[in-house]
């Protein structure tokens, strides 16, 4: 059991939600701006942002947080579009105590907040191959598991052996790969479970060869993706219902959407499945542009695109500035 502390620092004004939240050894920030912490650089604040001190702190918090308080977990927010009205309830971000990377033979035990590129680099340095693709996916291990993120012919399902997750009541579960329900850019673990740690498995490899592969991946990304822009990567998943087997970017191209602009949101010229905030876009402009692309693709090709980017939060009320 944890020492009872106030649920917020003295400096913070107690909003209604702050009064509802349990004590914690971590940090809770009310009305916390999120936009600058997302790749799109848009979106409203979190009603409260919680940074747990460690797993016990998070588990205690979940067990004692009232059921009517919505909880959203974020990694590096490289695959989310947070709407302009912000996220109601508590947004959880895992910090350094969830970012460990331990080597065990050809396996790695990795905290969910570890950044993919750091994991890939560690694997390279100790001669574990199979994790090179992580160097091409911005984000954390937790976000990668949720999305079954993938690139260059590999995805998380190929390297995850087991995952430790906390459910909404703070109970810990260990799930093995065949219990994860991985599918294309998805997994079937309940949406409100939080991944804490995972065991990733590779094969013994030559560090020089692994390094070469990582370099090729990084060069390919620079060449083909607008990685220096404010974007969230591929906006729509590749369809499984196009009889001609075209990829999403080909459908968007066919619908004439490359370079399409709405306000300050734009379809990337470099990779037309990427939407870009050209500077001061709102989340609404980006979402509306995405919907317009979906509409044009449907009209032109008959295919209904599925959003891969996770749209979360609420729209801004009209009376708000
Ligand atoms: C330039 C660019 C290139 C990209 N290229 C690729 C690519 O090649 N392949 C690809 O698959 N994706 C790609 N993406 C998308 C994105 O990087 C991946 O989906 C990534 O895995 C998201 O990780 P994240 O930590 O940023 O998760 P977030 O964006 O923060 O969250 C994504 C989802 O995961 C959930 N989540 C996050 N952490 C946890 C956790 N600990 N427990 C449970 N759920 C959690 C969130 O609630 C949300 O639903 C790209 C994005 C950008 C910006």
Overall morphology: globular
Strand order of the largest sheet: 6-7-13-11-12
Uncertain spans: 1-9
CATH T-level fold name of the largest domain: Uridine Diphospho-n-acetylenolpyruvylglucosamine Reductase, domain 3
Q: What fraction, in percent, of the residue positions are helical?
A: 10-25%
N-to-C SSE string, H for helix and E for strand: HEEHEEEEEHEHEEEEEEHEHEEEHE
Q: Count the strands?
A: 19
Gross CATH architecture of the largest domain: 2-Layer Sandwich
By secondary-structure content and strand pairing, the structural class works out as: alpha+beta
Strand content: 15-25%
Tell me the count of domains.
3
The CATH class of the largest domain turns out to be Alpha Beta
The number of helices is 7
Most strands sheet: 5 strands, antiparallel
Radius of gyration (Å): 20 Å
CA-to-CA gap between the ends?
Answer: 44 Å
Bound molecules: flavin-adenine dinucleotide
Mean pLDDT, to the nearest integer, reads 94
Note down, in words, how this protein is organized.
This protein has 321 residues and is of the alpha+beta class. It folds into 3 domains: 16-96, 2-Layer Sandwich (Uridine Diphospho-n-acetylenolpyruvylglucosamine Reductase, domain 2); 99-210, Uridine Diphospho-n-acetylenolpyruvylglucosamine Reductase, domain 3 (2-Layer Sandwich); 227-312, Uridine Diphospho-n-acetylenolpyruvylglucosamine Reductase, domain 1 (Alpha-Beta Complex). The chain contains 7 helices and 19 strands. It has helices at residues 16-20, 55-64, 116-125, 141-147, 207-224, 248-254, 283-301, and strands spanning 27-32, 46-51, 71-74, 80-82, 87-93, 101-104, 107-111, 128-129, 150-151, 154-155, 160-166, 172-176, 194-201, 203-204, 230-234, 261-262, 265-267, 274-277, 310-312. The strands form 6 sheets. The chain has a 5-stranded antiparallel beta sheet, with helices on one face. Helix 3 (116-125) runs antiparallel to helix 5. The protein is globular and about 50 Å long. The relative contact order is 0.13. Residues 39, 73-80, 112, 136-140, 142-144, 146-147, 149-151, 194-195, 225, 227, 231-233, 310 line the site of flavin-adenine dinucleotide. Flavin-adenine dinucleotide binds at residues 39, 73-80, 112, 136-140, 142-144, 146-147, 149-151, 194-195, 225, 227, 231-233, 310.
């Amino acid at each position: 059991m944890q020492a009872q502390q106030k649920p917020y620092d003295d400096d913070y004004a107690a909003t209604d939600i702050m009064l509802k939240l349990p004590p914690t050894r971590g940090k809770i920030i009310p009305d916390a701006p999120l936009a600058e912490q997302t790749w799109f650089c848009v979106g409203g604040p979190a009603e409260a942002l919680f940074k747990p001190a460690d797993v016990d702190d998070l588990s205690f918090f979940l067990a004692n947080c009232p059921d009517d308080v919505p909880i959203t977990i974020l990694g590096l927010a490289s695959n989310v579009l947070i709407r302009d009205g912000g996220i109601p309830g508590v947004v959880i971000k895992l910090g350094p105590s969830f970012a460990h990377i331990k080597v065990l033979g050809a396996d790695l035990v990795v905290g969910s907040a570890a950044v993919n590129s750091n994991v890939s680099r560690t694997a390279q340095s100790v001669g574990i191959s199979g994790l090179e693709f992580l160097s091409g996916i911005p984000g954390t291990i937790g976000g990668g598991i949720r999305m079954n993120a993938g690139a260059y012919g590999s995805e998380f399902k190929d390297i995850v052996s087991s995952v430790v997750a906390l459910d909404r009541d703070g109970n810990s579960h260990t799930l093995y790969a065949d219990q994860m329900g991985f599918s294309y850019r998805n997994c079937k673990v309940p949406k409100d479970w939080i991944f804490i740690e995972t065991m990733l498995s590779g094969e013994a490899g030559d560090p020089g060869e692994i390094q070469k592969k990582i370099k090729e991946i990084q060069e390919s990304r620079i060449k083909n993706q607008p990685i220096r822009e404010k974007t969230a990567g591929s906006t729509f998943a590749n369809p499984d219902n196009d009889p001609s087997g075209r990829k999403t970017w080909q459908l968007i191209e066919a619908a004439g959407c490359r370079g399409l602009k709405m306000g300050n949101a734009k379809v990337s010229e470099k990779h037309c499945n990427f939407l870009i905030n050209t500077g001061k876009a709102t989340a609404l402009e980006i979402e509306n542009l995405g919907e317009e692309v979906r509409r044009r693709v449907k009209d032109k090709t008959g295919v209904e695109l599925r959003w891969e980017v996770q749209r979360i939060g609420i729209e801004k009320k009209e009376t708000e500035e």
